[in-house]
Structures are given as C-alpha cells and as structure tokens.
Amino acid sequence: MRILVVDDSRVMRQIVVRTLRQAGFGGHEIVEAVDGVDGLAKVAETEPDLVLSDWNMPNLTGIDFLRALRASGNGVEFGFVTSEGSDDMQELAQNAGARFVIVKPFTPEAFENALSPVLA
To answer: Are the CB atoms for 102 and 114 separated by under 8 Å?
Structure first.
C-alpha cells in the first residue's frame, strides 16, 4: 500500500514516517508532500491508499485539502496528524470525511490503533 504524508515541516514528516515504522507499518511505500497544494498533486500522481495530513499548513490547509479531494470525487482514506485536538476540530474533520485524528504528541500505539482498521 502507498501512504502519503503531508506536512509543511520536514522534521515532522520524518517523525510521522518513523512512527509508522515503529507502529508496524514500515512495509508500505511512503510518499511525502509539503502542503495541501502539493498533496493534491501527489494524490493525482501517486494514487495513495491513505493520506496522513497536518491541519495547519501554508498554501492549502489540511481541512481544505480534504474538502478539495472530496469535491473532486476522490474517496481516498484520510486522517489527520495534528496538534489541533478540540472537539469542534474533530467534528469538522469527521464531517469532511476524515477517518481519524491523531493528536500530537503521538505514540506508535496511537498510530496502530488509528491505522490498523484502515490498512487491514
């Protein structure tokens, strides 16, 4: 399977990829994007099975990235890995079509719990 990791911080993308491996998802192909605009291009180019996106990014935020995907008819599995964890934000994410929200700081167990149903 192919996983697209979208975050404007290179360090955070590396932490997400390392945590994926620690959670037992190291056998998947990983693609990276630097923001929502790049994420839209990478989805079209690589057709990932899962998108893990930050919420706050320049050019196109994570929620607008998700909304753009859904508006185009793309139903790729989508989850947020973000520092935003309020109830309102989580409701907004779910209403837009996100499968889960993983709140920073996160653990490999949080990734395993959120991703296992999606990548099974």
So the answer is: yes
Tokens representing 37 are 């605009």
Dig out the tokens for 42 from the structure: 């990478």
Contact 55, 102 (CB under 8 A): no
Q: Beta partners for 50?
A: 3, 77
Nearest of 46, 23, 49 to residue 33 by alpha carbon: 46
Residues 55-112 have pLDDT tens digits of 999 999 999 999 999 999 999 999 999 998 899 999 999 999 999 999 999 999 999 9
Helices (H) and strands (E) in the chain, counts: 5, 5
CA distance 106 to 111: 8
Answer yes or no: pTM beyond 0.90. yes
Provide the token pair at 38: 């790049």
Per the DSSP assignment, residues forming a β-bridge with 30 are 3
